[in-house]
Design goal:
Bound molecules: zinc ion
CATH architecture of the largest domain: Orthogonal Bundle
Order of helices and strands: EEHHEHHEEE
Radius of gyration: 15 Å
Number of helices: 4
CATH class of the largest domain: Mainly Alpha
Helix content: 25-40%
Structural class: alpha+beta
Strand order of the largest sheet: 3-6-4-5
CATH topology of the largest domain: Arc Repressor Mutant, subunit A
Mean pLDDT: 94
Largest sheet: 4 strands, antiparallel
Low-confidence stretches: none
Shape: globular
Strand content: 5-15%
Length: about 120
């Protein structure tokens, strides 16, 4: 990671240094007001754990879809969980615990658009 960027604690996207942060860059933890307000709660940590547990239950080389985790947590109302699961996956990428792929290739979680899969690092 370049020295002038860090990862948002909430959404897991890259935060690029901006001039307004020149005096307190070390304290910046969120990319936006929305992320700061939302923060990371117990439910978000639970999604991270569910991703890891789900991967743990599969073959070492397997990948999972975010919807696998969303459906497992809330079978009848899983769609609203898709973005929270993707955010959890991005936070795990920042921790080096998973990779996000598209068509079998590792992608940048900050910029990937469209369907993603999650797998353990190779
Ligand atoms: Zn953010």
């Amino acid at each position: 990671m370049p020295p002038d960027s860090k990862t948002c604690q909430a959404c897991g996207r890259r935060i690029t240094w901006r001039k307004k942060w020149k005096d307190d860059w070390d304290d910046v933890r969120y990319c936006s007001t929305g992320c700061r307000k939302r923060g990371v709660g117990v439910a978000d940590r639970d999604l991270e754990q569910r991703i890891l547990d789900t991967l743990d239950g599969r073959a070492r080389s397997a990948s999972i879809c975010p919807s696998d985790v969303a459906r497992q947590k809330s079978p009848d109302d899983w769609r609203p969980l898709m973005e929270p699961v993707r955010q959890a996956a991005r936070r795990l990428v920042a921790q080096g615990r998973v990779e996000i792929t598209q068509q079998g290739h590792v992608v940048d979680p900050s910029t990937a658009k469209g369907p993603i899969r999650i797998r353990l690092p190779r």
